[in-house]
Amino acid sequence: MKALHDYSIAEAGALLRDGSITSMALTEHALARIKTIDPLINSFITVAGESALADAADADASFARGIDRGPMQGIPHALKDIFDTAGIRTTCHSRLRIDNIPQDDSAVAARFRAQGAVLLGKLATHEFALGGPSFDLPFPPARNPWNPDHIPGGSSSGSAAAVAAGLVRMAMGSDTGGSIRGPAAFCGTVGLKPTYGRVSRRGVFPLSYSLDHCGPLAWTVEDSAIAMQVIAGFDPCDPGSVDLPVPDFRSKLNRGVEGLRLGLPRHWFVKADGVSPEVVRALDDAAQTLARLGATVEEIELPNYELYNACGRVIMASEAFAIHENDFQTRPLDYGLYTYLKMTPGAFVTAADFVQALRLRRELALAVNAQLKDFDALITASTLLPAAKFADLDPHRPPNLPVQAMPFNVTGHPAMSIPIGFSASGLPLSMQIVGRAFDEPTVLGIGATFEAARNTHPHRPSFGVAGTA
C-alpha cells in the first residue's frame, strides 16, 4: 500500500469505485498533510476544510447509491486564487480583493463541482497573476518544496508547490506568459497550457484577454489528461472559447512515439544568455531518449525567441493596464511594488505599438504552424535555469525569470512542461512539448511515453517533518 497522497487520480478513482478507500479518507489525509506541510511552503491562501469534508461526504454517498459523475468524483483538488468559487473568497493574492467572496463559481470550478470533486481550497499566486514573488502582500509567497529557500516560479506558484508536495494530485493554474509551465518546471510537476479557446476562462480574473489560458498542474501526465476531460469544452459566455468537439485526452497515452517527427528549436535555448549547461545537457539527453523510443528528432529554425517575447510583453502590458486602469489610478498604493512596476509600462504603450504587436503576432504564429505541417510536435526548453533563491532577488525590481514559454501564448498552441531530471543542487529540470492547435492528446501522449521511460517521479520532496512521509 502506498501513502494515500501518492495514489494518482486514476489509481485513487479505481479504489474509490471498488470501495477500498473513501473520499472522506482521502480528504482527511490531505487536510492533515496541508496542516503539517503547508506552513513550510505557503501554497494555500484559503483552506476550505469544512466544505471539503462536506464535498467528500456527498461523493461517498453518491458512490454508495451507484452514482458515478466522472473521474474526479471524490478526488481532492485545489484552484489558483484567481478562479471564482461561490461562497469561498477569491483574493488574487491582493489587498484589492482580500474580502471578495464570489456568488458564482467560475466555469472551471463549476465543472469540477458537477463531477463531485472535492475542493480543498485556494492557492497562492503572484498578485493578479503578475507581481511576485512578493513579501509586501497580505499573504506570503509560496516556496519551492524541493528547497524552500528557492522560488517555485509564477504565477501559478501555489498550484505547483501544492502538487509537488503531495498536498493535491492536481491543481488549476492560469498561463499568460508561462505561468503554468514555469512553476511546473521549477517544482518538477507536469503543467499543461491547453490551446487558446479549449478551456473556458469565465470567472477567472483576467491578466491579458488574448493571452490568458487555464490548465492543470499535476503529478503525472495521465492526471493532467483526466483533468482536461473535465474542464474542456465550449462556453458561449467566454468570448475566446472555441466550439469544437472535446477529444479523449487519454486516447494517446499508450501510443508511444514511434514514427512521430519532433522538431527541436535548439537555437532558442543554446544561444540564450545565461543558460545553464545542466539544462542544455538535460534537454539533449531528453531528445535522445525520445529518439531511442522511436521518434525522429530534427533541429529546426524558428524566428528569434526574443521576437515572440517582445510581442507577448507588449500585448500583455497593454491589456493588463486596460483591466486595472481604474484601480491603478485610484488605489495605486494598494498594489505590491512588483505589481505596480510591472503594470506601469502598459500606460505608455501606444496604439501603434499595440497594432504592430498584433501584426507581428500573426507572422510568428504562421512560422510555428509552418513547422507543425512537417512535424507532429516540437520539443524545447521550459526554463533556462533551475529555480532561483529568494535571497538572490532584487526587492526593488521585479525578477526576470528565465522561462521560455511566451511564444506559445502568442501563438495559442498547446504546450506542456514535464520533468526530465534534477540539477546537481537537487532542483528539477524540465522540457516543453508543443503540439498543433487543439491536438492536446498528441502532446500528452509524448509526455506519457517519456514519463514512463524515464521514471520521472521516483520520489517527492522530503520535508524532514514527522508525519509527512
Task: Describe the protein's architecture and organization.
The structure is a single chain. The chain has helices spanning 9-17, 23-41, 49-64, 107-114, 157-164, 181-187, 221-231, 266-270, 277-292, 305-330, 337-343, 351-374, 407-411, 440-454, and strands at residues 44-47, 76-80, 118-123, 170-175, 190-193, 213-218, 261-264, 296-299, 377-381, 415-422, 428-435. Strands 1-3-2-4-6-5-10-11-9-7-8 form an eleven-stranded mixed beta sheet, sandwiched between helices. The longest helix is centred in the last third of the chain and has 26 residues, at 305-330. The radius of gyration is 21 Å and the shape is globular. Helix 4 links the parallel strand 2 (76-80) and strand 3. Helices cover 38% and strands 13% of the residues. The two termini are 13 Å apart. It is of the alpha/beta class and 469 residues long. The protein has one domain (16-454): Amidase signature (AS) domain (Amidase signature (AS) enzymes).
